[in-house]
Amino acid sequence: MGIPITPPVPQTKVEELMGKILITEVPKCFDEITTQREAKGDDAPLPSDYTILQLLKSFSGFNSWMSLAARDGDVQTLTKEIETAGDDVEKAQFLLKRGVRYAYEKQFENACKDFKQAHESVEKEENGEEKIGEENLAKLLAWVGMCNHLKYKLDVASKCYERCSELEPKNVSILLEYNNTVMDFV
Question: Which of 30, 78, 107, 114 has the maximal Cβ count within 10 Å?
Fold first, then answer.
């Protein structure tokens, strides 16, 4: 009705009380969330699809990987390629492509599983990093880092981003992601 009402408690008192409560309660909430995530391990849930998609759209390379994912084939075709792959590195390359395709189709949990499996395949193969090539390795590490970051596995994400920034020192988005993980530690 447009009639101003005087609150029963002055705003300064509310702000003072909130300042005192936040100092003690926020750390407790963060500790509880961290404990819950650590207990879930690999099963820690990803944020919502909407949140992940908004994050991906914020990257400068979003349109290029979207078009590449569309051209690389559908999930069924890539799955057949994975099954017929000759060695772990070739399998990792197709897992990377299928993971990107899953991300394209907004199936982020499946994408993270493929990226993790591809990374494990490369690490398992003797000279796997050399065989997959710096460009593919950098892409894989960026995706693995992001998946771990989204699941609050900040130490693993940080290592992936660090290694990726060594491979692509001029890639600003990787440096930003690495800095974000460092800030999340604090």
Answer: 114
3-state secondary structure the chain: CCCCCCCCCCHHHHHHHHHHHHHHHHHHHHHHHHHHHHHHHHHCCCCCHHHHHHHHHCCCCHHHHHHHHHHCCCHHHHHHHHHCCCCHHHHHHHHHHHHHHHHHCCCHHHHHHHHHHHHHHHHHCCCHHHHHCHHHHHHHHHHHHHHHHHCCCHHHHHHHHHHHHHHCCCCHHHHHHHHHHHHHHC
pTM of the full predicted structure?
0.71
Confidence (pLDDT) at 170: 64
The CA-to-CA distance between both ends of the chain, in Å, stands at: 47
177 domain-assigned: yes
pLDDT at 185: 47
Residue 123 token pair: 């690490």
Amino acid (one-letter) located at 34: T
93 belongs to a structural domain:
yes
- Count of structural domains within the chain: 1
Average pLDDT, the chain: 82
Contact by Cβ (8 Å): 168, 155: no
The per-residue b/e assignment along 130-146, b for 16 or more CB within 10 angstroms, e otherwise, is ebbeeebbbbbbbbbbb
* Domain boundaries, position 137: 47-185
Local confidence band at 186 (pLDDT 50, 70, 90 cut-offs)? very low
